Amino acid sequence: MVLGCVIHGQGDLRVEELPEPEPAPGQALVAIRYGGICGSDLHYHRHGGVGDFRLQEPMVLGHEVVGTVVAYGEGAAGSVAGSAVGPAAGSAAGPVAGPAVGTPVAIHPATPCGVCQECSDGRANVCRDTRYLGSAARTPHVQGGFASRIAVPAAQLRALPEGLEPRRAALAEPLAVALHAVRRAGVVKGRHVLVTGAGPIGCLTIAAARAAGAATITATDLLPRALEFAAAAGATACVRADDPADPNWPSEEMDVAIEASGVAAGLDTCLRRVRRGGVVVQLGMLPPGQSPFAGNLLVAREIELRGALRFHAEFDDALRLLAAEPSLDALISGVRPAREAVEAFGQAADRSRSCKVLLDFAAD
After folding, report:
1. Which domains occur in the chain, in start order?
2. Contact 305, 318 (CB under 8 A)
């Protein structure tokens, strides 16, 4: 039996003993060490769903996971050289070579279909038939990674770069989201960038913009502690989102604005602060239904509004960046044993004191 964190409904998170999985053909068995609690995990816990996707059955949560390769199923084998070339896309034509047994790995959480128009166009992150760890977007739900052992397609494994410890590697999935959002913004080098919302994704977006060469990065949030994390991630100015007269607001207009708070007010700020001809990227997931925003500014200022969903190849880039940036450890505000998952979720939900909280599956 293995330990797992299972959501049964709104407010009903349980730490349970689950049957140990057997890797199917093409799969790998991974002993999970750390799992990062994501905003979507918190939504499942607090609201019983994310956006339009509601829980229909018990589901293991989690998609930000790292661990160690234990074994492979038929048609998959470990290689001394190391890592797979990309997320699994259906069955492979031949044996899938993953990292050798015993290798520390991060797990790419998406399994795109590989055959739809979006996958054919190189945009597998918006695949219409993807499978994503810990997601209720389809039924049966895709079980997640918050278990002490999980079986996943071997092609989703990524060997950790030399020098990258598993604890920091647990940031790879949200950092990949941030890298994709920054790339959706276009040229960032030498530009003035605004990031609204300094939660974990917002702070990692700041780090991604800094790595892309942004000249200045302004972060906004309602909470002083969140702005402290933003400064640690590389923000050059930190502003209270509810104070338009905050003296920390830069005098110049923004070239690029990335909305990471997931509230309409953040999008409004982006549209009003970006320059004429600038780019706004909506990264935060807005509430379901209609969201009011100053659409007239899109016309009057010829602003480009772009969406950003998840990531694809950026996952590998995120691992390399994490290996080179030990300062990002500062965004990990807590690590708790998996048996304390309920308490850890409460800690992660308290943004007045937390940024990224990890579950440790080796502590039990």
Report:
1. 2-159+325-360 (3.90.180.10), 175-307 (3.40.50.720)
2. no
